[in-house]
Each structure stands twice: as C-alpha cells, then as structure tokens.
Amino acid sequence: MVDFDLRSANARLRAGHPIIQCITNTVVQQFSANVLLAVGASPAMLDHEADAGQFAGIANGVLINFGTASNHQLLAADAAIDVAAAAGKPWVLDPVSVGAVDFRTSRIRRAAADRPTAIRGNASEIAALAGVGLGGRGVDSTDEVDAVLPAAVQLARTTGAIVAVSGPRDAVVAHIDGTDHVAHIDGGHEFMPLVIGTGCSLGAVTVAYLAGAGKGTAGPDSDVSVPAAAASADPGATASARFEAVVAAHAHFAVAGELAAAGAQGPGSYSVSFLDALHAVTGDQLAQARVSHRTLTADEGVQA
User: Do the Cβ atoms of 77 and 64 come closer than 8 Å?
Assistant: First the structure.
C-alpha cells in the first residue's frame, strides 16, 4: 500500500534546499532555474564535460535533458550520470523528442539503460522509449496519457525508474515489490503547454522532490519522517518514497498551474503568474491536490 503525504514531501524539499544540477535544453535553462528557485531548490546549470562529473558529486540530484544536446552536454551527461549513480543520488531522464531522429534516440536509450531514478516525458516520448511508439511531432505529443500506460508500466519494470507521463491529466507509474502502481494527478491549465519550459522544468522539480525524499526529517511543520536507514533496509520503502516524491512534484505543478490562471490574460502573463504560484503553493494546498492512486490487477499487468 502506498499512502501519499504530499505536505511532508514539500516540507522536506523546502527544508533541504537541494542543489539540482541541470544538464538541460538551452532553450529553457533560465526558466528552469527560476522554477527551481520558486519551489525552494537551488539550480546549477553546469553542463560542460570538464566539470559536470565533479559537480554531480556536490549536487543533491541531477537532471538529464537532451533537448538541444551539444557534444559537450552529451559528454557531461555521461560523467554526471556515472557519479550520481555511484553515489546513490537521484537523477531524472527527460527523453525529449525520443524517436524523432536516430542519433538522439540512441543516446536517450543509452541513458535509460543506466537506470535513472525517474523518467519524465509526454505520452509519445514514453511510448517511444518503451519501444511501442514512434515518438511525437517534435516536442509535441500525439498520444493520450492513458493510452500509453501499458508502455509506462513496461518502462518502469525494465528500468526500475518511476515513470511520469505528462498531459492534461498526468500519470505516474511505479513497480514496487512486484506490484504496479498508477497515480493520476488532475490540475494545471490550458496555457501551460503554450509556455516554453513548463515540461522541462517539471523534470528539474522532480529531481528536487526526489532529493528531498532522501532526507531523514520532513521539517518543522511536519511530524512525518522517512529515515534514510529504514529506507535502505527496505527497498520497497525506498521505492515508495520515490513514488511519492514524483507524484508530489507533479501535484505542485498541477496546483500552481490552476492558481496561475487567475488574472492571466494569455501565455505571457501566465508564465509570470506561474512562477509566483509555484512559490506560493503551501503544503496544505498540496495535501488537497486532486491525486488518485490504484494498483494494477494481475490481468492488467499482463496487458502492460
């Protein structure tokens, strides 16, 4: 059984103020950095191969996003993944446009084979990475979230990652102790896909929440903790904590996305309002987020 305590997940993030290394799309670097600051994390956009690996040893988590990958970024990603994985630090793969062109796809598949903590993408990206789809149209999805849940389950099983599928209604899939779990998160707003960086920055915030999941205490306004020793002794507890963290990141975006719509006249004003809303979201508001959870039956697991 997985019980989400999103209030505590948020408290751990804000109390820990994690440093998140982003090897990410150059189009969204500034927006992603501002989003991380808004939720209580500290961004670091170190993406050169000469120091990316060393800094991954300092950071609390790493985002790998090959949206506009250069040779420097590809080498930096390899170095950072090696260090983060060896140190047991969370790292998230955002498979931007996987399936669109061959070289990009091969590099993303190579990263996925390195067992990321979480994978976050749109429906078409998740299907393509699982090997059951061709990808979307550029960075845009051409598939529905629920239609690719079997692919997400397959990906969670084969990589060991928590798999998040973004869309009008987000889905997060986890394979824990032999059982497949699916959480759905409702919220957001129709302006969100019209603002460059909302999806990519969600990957960064997912790393931040995962970094918080490894902390022993939830902060002064929470009485719930996830001791690191207990988590290491029980792999299922570790997986459950990571599942909760990924759900919390998506819930944070969903709640802020709705709040940001008040007074926004269009995508431009919405972008500014969204940053403000991310900063303003409280643990109590997250606790009221529209999140549902179910486990897949054996028959559904076979289909997946």
Answer: yes
Tens digits of residue pLDDT in 105-149 = 999 999 999 999 999 999 999 999 998 865 544 444 456 889 999
Element (H, E) at 107: helix 102-112
Q: How does 252-267 read in b/e, with b if 16+ C-beta sit within 10 Å?
A: bbbbbbbbbbeebeee
**HSE-up of 220 (CA within 13 Å, CB side)?**
1
Q: What residues have CB less than 8 Å from 73, skipping those under 6 apart?
A: 23, 47, 66
Torsion angle of alpha carbons 25, 29, 32, 38, nearest 10°?
170
pLDDT digits (tens, 9 = 90+) for 252-263: 999 999 999 998
How crowded is the C-beta side of 52, counted as CA atoms within 13 Å?
23
Measured over the CA atoms of residue 10, residue 117, residue 275 and residue 33, the dihedral's sign is positive
> Taking the complete model, does pTM exceed 0.85, yes or no?
yes
Q: What's the token pair of residue 91?
A: 């790292």
Residue 190: strand, helix, or coil? coil
Does position 227 have pLDDT exceeding 80, yes or no? Answer: no
